[in-house]
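ARCHIVE RECORD
Type: protein–small molecule complex
Small molecule: flavin-adenine dinucleotide
Source of inputs: curated submission
Record status: active
Notes field left blank by submitter.
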Amino acid sequence: MDQIEPIAQSTDAGRSTRPLVSRLSAPVADRAEFLRHLLEHLDEDAADSVDPDGETRLMLYDCDMRLRFSGPTLSVVVEGREPGQHGVAKGVVAYYLQHILGDDCPPLVWSGDGADTRELAHFREMRVVSSIQLTPHMRRVRLAGSDLARFASGGLHVRLLFPPQGRTPVWPHSGPAALPVWPEGEDELVTRVYTIRNIDAEAGHVDIDVVLHDPPGAGCRWCRETRPGDPVGMLGPGGGEVGKAERYLLLGDETALPAIARTLAELPDDAKGHAFIEVDGEDEEQSLRHPVGMQVRWLHRNGAPAGTTTLLEDAARASVAPGSPPPFVWAGCEFEAFKAIRRFCRKDLGLRKNGHLVVAYWRRGKRQDDAPSADEEA
Ligand SMILES: Cc1cc2nc3c(=O)[nH]c(=O)nc-3n(C[C@H](O)[C@H](O)[C@H](O)COP(=O)(O)OP(=O)(O)OC[C@H]3O[C@@H](n4cnc5c(N)ncnc54)[C@H](O)[C@@H]3O)c2cc1C
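STRUCTURE (tokenized, with ligand):
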């Protein structure tokens, strides 16, 4: 057994001078089945070695993770250097344990480094600075906060936490499983997932571009009504990033426009491929910076309700020449389009998990709180 060392000293850069080590154990009846489920959820490249009868090693959030079974008991050791990444890695393991074991999962308690912290490394309290109208149905809210460097990489998305109006916000804190413990009752928070469109960690602000849709939801209402100085919570970042590829195919409706805009701006200068963005009409288009080899095409719904067309799937199919090597496909859109594009990627293009990232951003007729599959990743 590895020794659990005393609480680590942090360096100025936030990294520990020695490894941070934490442990957790839980009963798991079918070890092979459990590992299969776990690896299905994680990045394909996360596993260094998999052995249900010996040790399984994973790399997650810059942390080394070791899983071992002794009879029906699974022991997990997470070792890292940076307290934030270490805390998030522990939370991810606990999340998947709860998800996979379901009702059989006992209360999970981490021991070792960070066990006594209530701080959630991936949470920041932000303040609204300003909001401006970008196009008839897109509004930009600027949020200010401190220590934002971790939000500049490792995923484009954040979960915004809206406190009840007129109450002093009570924010989530880290529980024994390193997962957020949420306020309840009158302090309950409404949350929605958005994309960081711009970030300036040094200046301490991020921009969130919000679609004003009809019928509206809590997210669009917040965006319309929020005033400078209002508090809002931010958790993240999350979601996958676009991998390195010979060619790219980016697809999205207006909810994914911020993610596509940021991806295009961050792709290497010699990147090649297509980006198709579905919006209602010309007045919803934005000027986007992109590599010359990336062709950006706007697809207009021309009054058809959002989430009812096959424009993205049709454009995707037409853009890939038969017999040519498939591009890396990234897509963010309504649930039905998500299913069609995911099918196209897996069945028609034969893409593996690391060759596509297709995400349902919203589901027609369902609020985000009612549609857990809305942030399901393919
Ligand atoms: C990873 C990720 C990143 C995202 N990034 C962004 C982003 O940067 N900007 C952004 O605006 N959205 C983004 N979204 C989508 C956004 O989270 C959803 O649209 C969410 O439902 C908005 O919440 P709401 O409270 O406004 O509406 P909800 O309360 O969730 O829904 C209310 C009603 O509005 C409908 N609805 C929701 N979204 C739309 C829409 N776009 N058009 C028409 N009807 C809709 C629902 O079907 C429902 O009937 C992202 C989603 C994910 C998963």
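CURATOR ANNOTATION: The chain has three domains: 20-112, 123-238, 248-362.
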